[in-house]
Amino acid sequence: MQIEKFVDQFELLAEAHGITTAALLQRLERQDDDRPRWIAVENGRGIGVASASMTPDRKVRLWLDCRDSIAYQPLVRAASAAFRTDVYTSVSGSDLLLRRAFTAEGFRLDYTEDVFAARFTTAAVALRKARLPDGFSLITADQADGRSWFTLDNTLRQDIRGNEGWRGDLKWFAEHTHGASNFDPAAHIIAVDDTNGEYAGLVRFWNRPGASPRLGMLAVLRQYRGCGLGSALLARGVEVASTWDHERFTGETAREATEMRALWIAMGGTETDSRQTLVLRRGD
C-alpha cells in the first residue's frame, strides 16, 4: 500500500470516497475545500482518505473516510506526522478498528460524548409545559442580524466541551450555516431579550438527507440560565424539526453535561452510541 499526498489525483480521491469524479469536483468547488489530504492506494485503487482541517478553536482535526480498514493506520500515521501541534479526531465508540488505529499511533482519549435518540412525539409531550419567559421573543436564522448571531454562537461555544478557545470567523460561520446543504433557517432559533435586544440563547437542528434530524446545539448565555429559556427553545426546535417526516431525532452530549443528559432522558431518549474524541499530544 502507498500513501500519496493529494495534489491533483482527482480520480483516485473520488474512488477512495466512493463517488464519481464529477461529484467530487462539484463538492470541492461548492465547499471551496482545499484542506490537505492523503490517499491510501492499493493496487492502483484509492481505498481511503485522510483529511485535516483547522477549526476555529485552533485545533487540528483529522478525519478518515475509508473503503477498507487496512488503510486506517497508514493514513493516521502519514497525516498526523504532517503537524507539529496536537492533533484531534473523533471516532464512534463502536468502531473498534478505527480507534485501535489511532491509539496505535499515540492518540489518547480526551473526552466522550454519548449519542442519544428520541421520538419527536415523546419529546413533545415532555416539553408540553415549556413556556417562553416574559420579556423574550424567538426569531429564526433568516430574521437574525448576522453579526449578533455569530457573536452569540462564539460565546456559547466557550462552555461546550471540546470547543474551548473557540474563535470563529464570519466566513467560516457563513459556510457552516447558510452555506451548509442541511441548513434550514426555520430550525435555527434564537432567543432575544426584548428589553435590550441581546441575543440570549439558541437551538439548532440539522435536516440531514437520508438520516434522522440532529440536535446540533442548545445553549443559553449564563446570565439567562435558570428561567426556562432553554426548554422553550428546545420545544420550538422540536416542533419545527418534527415536520421533516422523521420519527426520531438524535444528538450528542458530553458525559459530564449532567443537565443535558437529564433532559434527553426526560424526553424519552435512549443511548445509541458514543463519540470519543482522541488527541495526539505533541508534548507527550
Automatic annotation (TrEMBL):
Keywords: Transferase. Residues 139-284 form the N-acetyltransferase domain. It comes from the Bacteria. Pfam families: Acetyltransf_1 (PF00583). One of its GO terms (molecular function) is acyltransferase activity, transferring groups other than amino-acyl groups. This is GCN5-related N-acetyltransferase.
